[in-house]
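Can anyone check this?
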Amino acid sequence: MAKTFLIATHNVKKKNELLRILAPLGIDVKTDSELGLTLSEPEETGETFYENALIKAKAGCEESGYPCVADDSGLMVDYLAGAPGVYSARFSGENSDDEKNNNKLLKLMADVPENERTARFVSVVCCVFPNGDIISARGECEGTIGYEKKGESGFGYDPLFMGNGKSFAETVFSN
């Protein structure tokens, strides 16, 4: 029998990614609405990906009573001194979306030469258990920022983040 974990997100693509990763471990990932709950959305006041992931995982666990998995991830561009970083989802300001964020990044990087387009995608995942235990992991993927959007899969900055000659949107698993 699968163990149910809450995922602190309303992003269906992110939920599907975690479901694909955790299902082989016997973990069934559910959103709050799938569990018949309506949880608050804690403000992401952390200065690091870890702090924001932990804020969301703790809140979800405390409010639901389920083990809660949350992540914070984003793009860190060297030329932009690590921006957008923890502000990746809201990089283009109020009412940000993937299209606006990608367009802003393209504009800021328009005249940047190839050798200065280095970046990394960072993801931190935290799981908080009702007994207070915390598990976290951090991953980074090195790459560069492309000159134009490429590919149809993925989300976020995937059409611009390049690795091995292709964008993540050309190489990621379909959701």
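Reply from J.R.: I decoded it. The beta strands are 3-7, 27-30, 68-77, 118-128, 134-145, 161-163, 166-167.
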